[in-house]
Amino acid sequence: MSSIQMPEAVLFDLDGTLFQTESLLIPVHRRVFQTLREEGLYPGETPPVERLLGSLGMLLEHIWEKVMPDGSPEARHRANELLLRYELEELEAGTGRLYPGVPETLRKLRDRGVRLFVASNGLEAYVKEVPRLRGVADLFEGFYSAGEYGTASKTELVRILLKERGIRSAWMVGDRSSDVEAGKGNGLFVVGCDYAGFRSEGELEGADAVVGSFDELDGLLSP
């Protein structure tokens, strides 16, 4: 790949970019719906986990509308609570893994003076605990989540991050259309990640570069 100007900072999506989310969500999804049935909030069959994986990148309220369109507001609210609880329990138990090359590549970028951040539409505790429990939290300068900042879009979240941190040049790295929109909406160079396997066709249209594995990111940067 041809090299590109070194940015001051790189902003990463979490699910499907740094973290191999299906390795955690498959058992969590099963547990959430088992509990909803036990509590009498959702009598139906467990929806296919592919619906949940295909919704990653959305805000949580929109995720549950897609995953269980027939669910009540009470069921969706409870699903939110259970999702976070079970995600953290499973993470603590060792379930879920980063993509190959993530720790090594992040260290290379930081050693080259690049400031690293996470920008995710997820809940605050999840966005902070995944990096901590997988041993890479110390490589990041900050973690920004829709759950913490109450943002209605990733474009807004990234705008807040850039302003708070005084960043003038940055890359947005992610696997969903919301990442492309957030980057372009803030004048950033966008790198699309094409290795998660659960995005929709055409989601990375508009990205300035696309990588097929996380470690290709380092090769994009000029020496």
Q: Which percent bin holds the helix content?
A: 40-55%
In percent, how much strand structure appears in the residues? 5-15%
Radius of gyration equals 17 Å
Q: How many distinct domains?
A: 2
Shape designation:
globular
CATH fold-type name of the largest domain: Rossmann fold
* Parts with pLDDT < 50 across at least 5 consecutive residues: none
Q: Architecture of the largest domain, according to CATH?
A: 3-Layer(aba) Sandwich
Question: How would you explain this protein's 3D organization?
Answer:
The structure is a single chain. By secondary structure, the protein is an alpha/beta fold. The chain folds into 2 domains: 9-20 and 97-220, Rossmann fold, CATH 3.40.50; 22-92. It is 46% helix and 14% strand. The protein contains 10 helices and 8 strands. A 6-stranded parallel beta sheet has the order 5-4-1-6-7-8, sandwiched between helices. A two-stranded antiparallel sheet has the order 2-3. Helix 2 (49-55) packs antiparallel against helix 3 (60-67) and helix 4 (73-92) packs parallel to helix 6 (124-133). The longest helix is centred in the middle third of the chain and has 20 residues, at 73-92. The chain is globular. The two termini are 13 Å apart.
Give the arrangement of secondary structure elements:
Elements (H helix, E strand, L loop, with lengths): L8 E4 L6 E2 L1 H17 L10 H7 L4 H8 L5 H20 L4 E2 L3 H10 L3 E6 L3 H10 L8 E4 H4 L4 H12 L4 E5 L2 H9 L3 E5 L15 E3 L4 H5 L3
Parallel strand pairs: 1-4, 1-6, 4-5, 6-7, 7-8
Antiparallel strand pairs: 2-3
Helix pairs in contact: 1-4, 2-3, 4-6, 8-9
